[in-house]
Specification:
The structure holds two protein chains of two kinds. Chain A is of the alpha+beta class. Chain A contains five helices and 14 strands. Chain A has two domains: 207 residues, Immunoglobulin-like; 47 residues, no CATH class. Chain A starts with a helix and ends with a strand. Chain B is α+β, with helices and mostly antiparallel strands. Chain B has a domain of 220 residues: 2-Layer Sandwich (Alpha-Beta Plaits). Chain B contains ten helices and 19 strands. Chain B has a four-stranded mixed sheet with strand order 12-3-14-13. In chain B, strands 15-16-17 form a three-stranded antiparallel sheet, with helices on one face. In chain B, strands 1-2 form a two-stranded antiparallel sheet. The chains are: A alpha+beta, B alpha+beta.
Chain lengths: 288, 375
Amino acid sequence: MKARNALLIIVGFFSAWLFACARQGPPLSDSEVKAVVEKTAPTTIDDAVWQRAPLHPAKLLLQDMVEPRLMQASTAFVNVQAVSDGQRIVFRLSWNDSSPDDLPGPARFGDAVAVQLPAATSADVPAPQMGEPGRPVEITYWSAVFQAVVDGRKDDIHAIFPQATVDHYPFEAAALKTGSPEQVAMAKRYAPARSLGNPMAGPRTQPVQDLIAEGPGTLRLSDKSTSSGTGKRAKDGWTVLLSRPLPQGLQAGSRTQVAFAVWEGSHQEVGARKMRTAWVPLALGASQ
Amino acid sequence: MARVYNWQLGREMSYWYPESRPKRQFAAVFDTNKCIACQTCTLACKTTWTSGKGQEYMLWNNVETKPYGFYPMAWDVNLLEKLGAQNWDGQRYAGRTVFEAAQAGERVLGWRPEEIDYAHPNVGEDDCVNGVEKGAHFSGVHNSWFFYLARICNHCTYPACLSSCPRASIYKRPEDGIVVIDQARCRGYQECVKACPYKKTFYNALTGTSEKCIACFPKIELGMQPQCFVNCIGKIRFAGWISKPENARPDNPIDFLVHVKKVALPLFPQFGLEPNVYYIPPLNVPRDFLLQMFGPNVDAALETYRNAPKDKDLSGLLTLFGSTEMIVSKWKRADEQVLGYDEGGKEIVRVPMREPVHVRQAFDAARNVARTNIS
């Protein structure tokens, strides 16, 4: 019996070793996001650096602290990797999502992801739920709806509803020359949010937004637009690259905290209704 | 949640924000008995405000045929079902409002219409199912019934849209109580669409924001009634200002109709929003249906309306409906004439109780010719 147990243990260890050898991809970092420092920051999700940058599977929790809350969990994890060139930090975020949602509409919401960092790097971080009054957090937000427009979806109702029939738009009257300043100005007047410069309203050239918050319900566009990014759809989920300047005061070899959020559009997740992490330690590696 | 007083319920209720009434409150009275569902109001609004991209499906004003017409589909019955059976205890609402019945994690009890729910506004709601044979007629008692319900945003005292917005992007204008969505601040979460029981906020997929009826506030600011009011063929609508019941002034037309005569009633007061569009209920509709839709004062309102021909003040004021583009802040009856005044006390309209009748003889003897009506 003893010999049999010993054999089972040996077989078990051997299997685990074989599995570890067979596992492709970057090393795991369970407890923190380890940002590696490279000479140049990657600009694509396929860059070779992602094979060696440690991967942190960030556990997502329900946002069930403030109304409106998310009461049923959806996305369980977002896989996070980070690389910095000493000036900027690039996050590679990937998560499973069987239903791509990038069309807006009544009761239709897009998939999205966000990275949140304290505006000031210190040991004492603000509340992870969107910061606190006087202690802002900086958020880089990517949306699949934005991405689809940047990737070429037309700014037109027919791009969303192909069968739509429209009789007439006043700003497309025959008397108005298409693209003329008068015509453009008139079209803008018929899109109130666009007239007021609402960042949600487009026309869109970036799939990401730089946002600031000082507590739930206070989200606003940052004065500076410094982030960039791109998202790609795979068969079973999204991979998104988000690049932003290194947080103020974050030096090579030092630490801060970072948080993530994922919105599953098909689950009616939008705004406060999201899966999110608590603060996760972010360690910036030593410069090379 | 704060405790606020809702006079339509005769009690305090829970609301997300403390009570804060505007300096004055925009309000309206619609006489359902006069509506012919011509949809001129709908088009007046549509051409004025929602001709843009992303607004194609929006009807800030709509007219639907009750009981089976809806825009969006099942807007009222869906919520009534969610809310469940509730009771009035006389003038006091003994049930739960949409704020008090909110599920865990929500600010308001609501639901979100989908695209298909907006797909057939007033289509097939009052069409015959088959062709009508020549000479066919009905000679029995009409047990079938329907009526037309014209709807705009109710510019509620306790808006569910406003309370549901996690970003406080919706506000009630302190100067006139009109509820608007800040188009610079909205991020299109559609919480307001979910929360509004009347489904009068709409998501614009191209601007990424929600939009709603603004009661034509640029006209209101000039002392004028909104577009859907002044274009109404049936003259069913009257816009003005409403006071709290204890401050009601009989010379204020809306106060007179709502508080003094109590002939105009709120739409689904039990939802708890203290809506500010008041309806003179339709006469020939089953009582239970009207009780559910307009609350416990339906019998008295209908009785008052039936007796309007004997009530010179009431019938006089009803003649002011559709008589002027301006907002009538004060009114009075002087014998057989009804006068309307603007806020500064200037006379803006004078209407006879009865239009003078001129009878022309069918034959014009002076010209030796038979007269023909050509208009």
